[in-house]
Specification:
The protein is mainly alpha-helical. About 55% of the residues lie in helices and about 5% in strands. It is built from 13 helices and 7 strands. It is found in: Membrane.
Length: about 500
């Protein structure tokens, strides 16, 4: 009993200090830098684990190849006797060849299972130099070439049926490397070596024994502050004081709530922050999106009316500010929502609106079609791009397979939640160019405008020639001399 009190006396003050520091920094919108250092440490651990997995896999592959070579060398010296008298030799041959076949088959199955976890195929409409469409016959006519081209499109169509671009966006994003969580890997890499096993066990203890208690305490404090502050602010008459208090309490509450999932968020281009009378549109991954965006600005929310805990939060938020909730199944609500949106943006004293035009959660790898309702209002639109780093945890909520409680538990037991839409200068320039071309109805080309003054660089010419060559080499045309020799040989056979 004394040992328990001793351990509690050491743990409780430490947890209290950690929680207090997090709440204090979050309430004033400051950063201590600990979460950023924590994320950097996780990246180094993941890189080390990936290196260990690669080395273990290479060692296992070398061992299997050596075994296969030994078995094949043994099989070369064995001959099968056709007589039925020596049945032992025949059985030994069968056992050896079966063992060799089993090893080769298991290796092929392992390679298939390793490549099965991540599907990366970019749909292409036209053949490219990367397509390996081997042919064993010569194409003698133009019609034959057309038939072979049609087979390529048939292959592309079958691939699109097997792996389409829509349904994969409603599933969790697959990782290129393991993040030391069993839920993200169908292969138990932790059993490849004792080092990986030890790191996995330590990570499991850290996430479930240390992170979860601290995160739950921070979450309940943030949730309690959100509920009680909005309830009290709702009693204050409309005016500047109410708007000021609502803004300060909402920012503090959501910043504390995001600390409960160890959120590390990077906001870019803050000069384009949404203002009153505007509509902010963003891609949608999970209910966590609202918490992430509300760390930097206060928004009026528009969404489907929910029940249970989410419905309680919606009603609580509506006491302190004007939010718009609707029933998706009721057709009349659409016109009413559009009318409410126009009235909201016309009032300069109301908060900017946050809308997710996709209407559902997508796995953060793509952006689906936007609904037109938010663009019919005629207000100023502020687009926001949200990109989560799936290495530290899956932020996507698959509402058709996960309950909100299960999704919340996965967030709490993840390493962290990192939101960082990283974009380099080249990507930014291409995105701006594409937007200008789409707005003006222009053709978006990848060529340099300086070609007006200078010749095309030989490197670009060689690249285009290489593309044409690889496309045409699939149809090697027989030389006329070879065709004439074949005709003469046919005539001699007929004679």
């Amino acid at each position: 009993m004394e040992h328990i009190f001793l351990i509690a006396s050491l743990i409780i003050p430490s947890v209290a200090v950690i929680v207090g520091v997090n709440i204090l920094f979050a309430g004033f919108g400051k950063k201590s830098g600990l979460r950023e250092r924590y994320v950097d440490l996780l990246i180094k651990i993941f890189e080390w684990c990936a290196k260990q997995i690669q080395e273990s896999s290479e060692l296992e592959n070398r061992r299997e190849s050596d075994e296969n070579e030994e078995i094949e060398s043994d099989d070369e010296g064995i001959q099968v006797d056709d007589s039925n008298d020596d049945s032992d030799e025949n059985s030994s041959v069968v056992r050896k060849t079966s063992k060799c076949f089993a090893l080769k088959s298991s290796k092929r199955c392992r390679l298939v299972s390793e490549n099965h976890t991540i599907i990366s195929r970019q749909a292409t409409l036209h053949p490219t130099e990367k397509d390996e469409f081997t042919m064993t016959t010569f194409v003698k006519t133009q019609g034959g070439a057309a038939v072979m081209d049609s087979l390529y499109y048939l292959k592309s169509g079958i691939e699109a049926i097997v792996e389409d671009d829509v349904t994969n966006r409603f599933k969790a994003e697959q990782l290129a490397s393991w993040n030391m969580m069993t839920r993200t890997s169908t292969q138990f890499y932790k059993f490849l070596s004792w080092k990986l096993t030890l790191v996995w066990i330590l990570g499991l203890i850290f996430r479930y024994a240390i992170l979860i208690p601290i995160r739950f305490i921070i979450f309940f404090i943030g949730g309690g502050l959100l509920v009680w502050s909005t309830a009290l602010i709702g009693l204050i008459p409309e005016g500047k004081v109410k708007r000021f208090l609502n803004q300060r309490c909402m920012l503090a509450s959501f910043r504390i709530l995001t600390r409960s999932v160890s959120a590390v968020v990077y906001f870019h281009d803050k000069q384009n922050k949404a203002q009153s009378g505007g509509i902010c549109v963003a891609n949608h991954t999970s209910p966590l999106d609202v918490m992430i965006l509300s760390m930097d600005n206060v928004y009026a929310m528009v969404g489907q009316r929910q029940g249970g805990v989410l419905g309680f939060v919606q009603r609580t938020l509506s006491q302190a500010a004007d939010h718009i909730w609707f029933e998706r199944s009721v057709a009349n609500d659409r016109s009413l929502v559009l009318k409410a949106l126009k009235e909201h943006v016309d009032d300069p004293n109301k908060l900017p609106i946050i809308i997710f035009p996709e209407g559902t959660c997508i796995n953060n790898t793509s952006v689906m079609q936007f609904k037109k309702g938010s663009f019919e209002v005629g207000a100023k639109v502020y687009p926001i791009a949200m990109k989560y780093d799936s290495r530290f945890g899956n932020a996507f909520w698959n509402s058709s397979e996960q309950s909100y409680g299960e999704y919340f538990f996965h967030l709490m037991t993840s390493w962290a939640t990192v939101c960082h839409p990283d974009e380099n200068a080249i990507e930014f320039a291409n995105r701006v160019k594409k937007a200008i071309a789409a707005k003006g109805g222009l053709v978006d080309l990848e060529w340099d405008g300086q070609l007006k003054r200078y010749k095309v660089p030989p490197k670009l010419v060689a690249m285009e020639q290489d593309k044409c060559y690889h496309h045409l080499e699939k149809y090697p045309v027989r030389p006329q001399g070879a065709q004439q020799i074949d005709e003469e040989s046919d005539q001699e056979e007929q004679r």
